[in-house]
Amino acid sequence: MVNYTTGEVSKKLHISVRTIRYYDQINLLKPTMIHESGKRLYSEDDLLLLEKITLLKAASLPLKDIQQIIERVSTANILQLHQERLKTDIQQLQKSLEHTNTLLNIMKLEGTLRWEELVPLFQQHQTYSKEDVWKKIFDEEERATLKSSLPKLEADPNDIVKWINLMKRIEICLAEGKSPNSPEGKIIAEDIHILSSTTFANEDLADKFWEVRKSEDASEALGLYPVRQEILQFIEEASKGISVSTSK
Prior knowledge:
With 248 residues, this protein is mainly α. Helices cover 66% and strands 3% of the residues. The protein has a three-stranded antiparallel sheet with strand order 1-3-2. Helix 3 runs parallel beside helix 5 and helix 9 (158-175) packs antiparallel against helix 10 (183-199).
């Protein structure tokens, strides 16, 4: 029968010697044998038990609970717990990725981060449900269309870049004092109209969304990134006679 020292177990399972000794102290994992020299020796069964402990710990179970259930759970149970933990980790990582994409896209759009306007976008607990607000404004078919077609700040598609560039072009016009009725303003309005036609299923939905977008309160309630009123007014003036909408 092969027995392993604490150091050998540490190297084999990539677990620190300190952790193994701690498990010994709290009677979670006792060595099969203690040599007369004082060396603690672990068997293959001990190593299997240590692997079970490691999996349960990865499932975020506290050590005191692991100690109580370790002998009662099967390998299948342990793997199921580990699977659930991995799913949770993936969800958290996906959310972190979406937040990072949002910040990067806002940086492209604004050139800086206006934290006072960002906080509501990431708040998990609010006095109202964004989903309920969407249901009040748009019917089921409209919500499905908007969900599938609207460019999202948390995503990384080409569509969001197109909207960002349009907003930047408006910013340049505003900085240079060019009016919405200037040739540049009219070209921007035409580009917005073209992009909107590929985003929305029909012109009525585009107009409906645009009306919501013009309202700061409604945009905030829906969790949409705030667009400065100067930009919205520029689009409104430049687009007279043209059906337009703006992005999330």
